[in-house]
Amino acid sequence: MLAVYPGSFDPITLGHLDVIERGCRLFDRVVVAVLRNPNKTPLFTVAERMEQIRQATSHLPNLEVDSFDGLTVNYAKMRQAKVLLRGLRVLSDFELELQMAHTNKTLSNHVETLFLATSTEYGFLSSSLVKEIARFGGTIDHFVPRHVALDIYRCYAKTQPVSAPIVDSPIQEQPPMAPVEETSLDQGI
Ligand code: PNS
Hints:
Elements lengths: L1 E6 L6 H13 L2 E7 L10 H11 L6 E6 L3 H7 L4 E6 L2 H17 L4 E6 L9 H9 L10 H10 L34
Parallel strand pairs: 1-2, 1-4, 2-3, 4-5
The protein binds 4'-phosphopantetheine.
């Protein structure tokens, strides 16, 4: 059975990777589908995000990376997938995820949404959080694959992350940077 794991993945986190790896054990084939969203200003282009995901998942033979626009259920139908895979972190995710699942069910009765509970160590993790930490000079190496961390540091013109918390130090002036989008749909998982 084929499952589609849709999302923004801007960028992929270790939480996403956890869901992908577990999904690949449950399904014959998993397609990570990156949404081309005209309403968001992402940090990475769709092509960059797809490449980041490909590198992070090269050990998974039954994983495919693709992009789509429009409705997720239409993409799932086009791929003849009966399952949409989503990760659930905390209770606050549940409301929006349930709304999306119900909405998708009204759009297509043939596509089921299946939730995987995020592993506890990633319960707090989101792409937005990772970007915010990096933007203000924090270390993100434990949140994202190494190549993704390097991409993010590069985006914020940083070569060296701050590895230890700074106590009683004045806040460093940050260079101008690309805006980080904030929308209620940015679940990060
Ligand atoms: O990673 P995200 O941003 O939480 O993923 C959200 C996503 C891409 C799954 C959701 O926004 C989506 O499905 N967008 C496509 C448009 C759509 O199908 N809308 C109707 C269902 S809410």
